[in-house]
Amino acid sequence: MSAASGAEAHFRAEFGTEPAGRWAAPGRVNLIGEHTDYNEGFVLPFALPQRTVAAAGPAPAGEWTVCSTFAPGAVSFGTTSPGEVTGWAAYVAGVVWALREAGLEVPGARIALDSEVPVGSGLSSSAALESSVLTALIDLGGLDVPLEQRPALAQRAENVYVGAPTGIMDQSASIRCQAGRALFLDCRSYEVKQIPFDLAAAGLAILVINSNAPHQHVDGEYGARRKSCEEAARILGVPALRDVPFDGLDEALARLDDEVMRRRVRHVVTEDQRVLDTVALLEQGRTREVGSVLTAGHASMRDDFEITVPQVDVAVEAALAAGAYGARMTGGGFGGCVLALIDADRADATTSAVEQAYAKAGFKAPTCWIATAGPGATRL
Ligand code: GAF
């Protein structure tokens, strides 16, 4: 059953009535630009066809009840503050809170959720959840919130209410991506450029390899990377690492005493450049050449930012050995998914190669599928 039917059926079962509507928001794959968003740099995600759907209907003012096919029962809350609602429902309560904090009159609502986005795989299931609920509440309440302002509201829900110090990329991808396009986002100005991303026309494909090694954001490692970047920017006297120019990198590194911090900075500054290079290659139709940029990005995450795990490194190596043009981990790290740029007719061969490498290493089997660029959040 699709998430749209699932959410609708769950709404009916839980609330005994029809929802007023269904709102879908996708997960994402980030093509390139990892840990650059909170450094006010560049990212290039595309939306997945897999979505989270919120079936929603009205409730009395100041009352919200939410249920999910992923968890038993329903959670009800009123006017809420960070810390009050916990677990999966905190993402919903956080959105209500962030909208109210922005001075908006959020309508009371009953919401049922279902999702096709794999949870805990680095494909932004939490942003998909936030974005589906945000879009539903904005529509139900007839609220005037321009598209470009919506991601920051969902991000605030995650940062302040849920307590995960993530950047703006995932919510931007879920809300602002378009089908057949990758979203080139400037994470300082929030300006976007929609980059044509029709791989099939070039005989290519993106194979997503879920390492099935679980990952988490509400943990210390992500926050530690962010802190180290912010500290480096402070030492270098710039507002954010985005302001360290690529051709001034060596000079900036020479001003940092700490070896680990130097490597963190090198990752962020070179990664921003890789996003710009990738955009230029795509715009020139030189899509195969993006591969080596992706692989360089993986090496940087592995050696400089130190956010990969053996499962993703093995997947990258196996995909490359099987002939992929490039491969890299996508998302926050410490597990999650790898993407490989391959010839479209090499999907089965690449999948088998990765499966064999996993079996040899004694890892839990990976899950592989071809990802295409779907639409952003919308009312169905
Ligand atoms: C996670 C975060 F949520 C994003 O904001 C981003 O920092 C990403 O990790 C790393 O690029 O998905």
UniProtKB/TrEMBL annotation:
Which Pfam families does UniProt cross-reference here? GalKase_gal_bdg (PF10509), GHMP_kinases_C (PF08544), GHMP_kinases_N (PF00288)
Q: Which SUPFAM superfamilies match?
A: GHMP Kinase, C-terminal domain (SSF55060), Ribosomal protein S5 domain 2-like (SSF54211)
Q: Does the keyword DNA damage apply?
A: no
> What InterPro entries does its record include?
Galactokinase, Galactokinase_CS, GalKase_N, GHMP_kinase_C_dom, GHMP_kinase_C_sf, GHMP_kinase_N_dom, GHMP_knse_ATP-bd_CS, Mevalonate/galactokinase
Task: Tell me where in this chain the GHMP kinase C-terminal domain is found.
Answer: 280-359
In this chain the Galactokinase N-terminal domain maps to: 10-58
| Keyword terms of this UniProt record | ATP-binding, Carbohydrate metabolism, Galactose metabolism, Kinase, Nucleotide-binding, Transferase
GHMP kinase N-terminal domain: which residues?
91-175
Give the enzyme's EC designation.
2.7.1.6
GO terms of molecular function: galactokinase activity
Q: Which NCBIfam families match?
A: gal_kin (TIGR00131)
Q: Which family does it belong to?
A: Belongs to the GHMP kinase family. GalK subfamily.
What is this protein's name?
A: Galactokinase
Biological source species: Paractinoplanes rhizophilus
